[in-house]
Design goal:
The protein is α+β, with helices and mostly antiparallel strands. Helix content is about 15%, strand content about 40%. It folds into 2 domains: about 5-130, Flavodoxin domain (Rossmann fold, 3-Layer(aba) Sandwich); about 150-300, Beta Barrel (Porin). It is built from 5 helices and 14 strands. An 8-stranded antiparallel β-barrel has the order 6-8-9-10-11-12-13-14. It has a 5-stranded parallel beta sheet with strand order 2-1-3-4-5. β9 and β10 (about 205-220) form a beta hairpin.
């Protein structure tokens, strides 16, 4: 039996007021019922850890995105879009908050910096809600995808960073995080998102950054080799920063990474189930970098182990 279409609304604590306003508009539709995340998860519960269970109850989702939002919002978006299909998941963007350029049919409602739903935003929200087809509760829409689609834990170890050859045993630059990868059934085309922490310890300078990357393209070029192109969308920080005595080095290591895009080539590791290893080289003068990467598959919609 088809009942009301239930919509999940995700946001940070700071954006709960806007989330409630979105809920109010959705509830005006006689066949719709919206629920804000704080009514679903108890305090202290991490949304990313339980996101894969939502499609058993909800048939659509809206995520609130602001400049201050945790980059994990995009990973949550990717996980839920894969289960419910992209048409059933949307982003409500506040002001000029940057988003990846191409999320494969992203539904977006724009809201001003005042966090108020304008007449246009309300119309866009209603248009998205009304195009959602009916579906019985507990029945998941499905999309045919390649078996490597899903959530991956990612670890990247750099040997060269911003044109600096790192000293083994002394310097360290590493990225620890997760990727959500979507590949079409033949594995030839796809994209996704990547979030995590970048750790820098070079020549006395130490810092941590939170990173949001867009996987602008991905595809297997043969049975064993996956080529991925990654673009840096957002870098937040530095956190826990310790400056060195070298002011020029401090400035260099603090330079922004946004808009940077680099290729990654990964191969299946023999004897290990769904483990991809490889690396990337990026030769661009002061931004040149070399790194080795390990991607470990967690599951189609599994919550990854993100650094705290």
């Amino acid at each position: 039996m088809v009942g009301k279409t239930r919509i999940f609304i995700g946001s940070t604590h700071q954006e709960l007021e806007l989330a409630e306003a979105v809920k109010t508009e959705i509830d005006k539709h006689e066949n719709m019922e919206a629920t804000v995340w704080d009514k679903v998860f108890p305090p202290g519960r991490i949304l990313l850890e339980t996101i894969e269970n939502l499609p058993s109850t909800f048939q659509g989702a809206m995520f609130i995105w602001a400049r201050e939002s945790d980059a994990n919002v995009f990973l949550e978006y990717g996980n839920l879009a894969a289960i419910l299909t992209r048409t059933r998941v949307a982003l409500c963007r506040i002001g000029g908050a940057e988003i990846p350029a191409d999320l494969g049919g992203l539904n977006r409602i724009d809201v001003g910096e005042d966090r108020k739903l304008s007449e246009k935003a309300v119309k866009d929200l209603r248009r998205w809600v009304e195009q959602l087809p009916d579906i019985a509760e507990g029945v998941r829409p499905t999309a045919l995808v390649h078996g490597y689609s899903g959530t991956w834990n990612v670890r990247t170890e750099f040997s060269r960073w911003k044109g600096i050859d790192l000293k083994k045993g002394e310097d360290n630059v590493s990225f620890i995080g997760a990727a959500f990868l979507m590949l079409e059934a033949d594995g030839a085309r796809g994209g996704g998102l990547q979030v995590g922490r970048l750790y820098i310890d070079v020549n006395g300078y130490q810092a941590e950054y939170q990173i949001l990357n867009e996987i602008t393209s991905a595809g297997f070029i043969d049975r064993e080799t996956l080529e991925v192109s990654i673009r840096v969308v957002r870098r937040e920080g530095p956190y826990k920063e310790k400056k060195s005595d070298d002011a020029a080095m401090n400035r260099k290591l603090r330079e922004d990474l946004r808009r940077m895009e680099f290729p990654v080539k990964l191969k299946t590791e023999q004897g290990k189930f769904r483990t991809l290893v490889g690396g990337h080289e990026f030769n661009a003068a002061s931004r040149a970098q070399d790194a080795e990467e390990t991607w470990t598959y967690r599951g189609a919609f599994a919550a990854p182990s993100l650094p705290s």
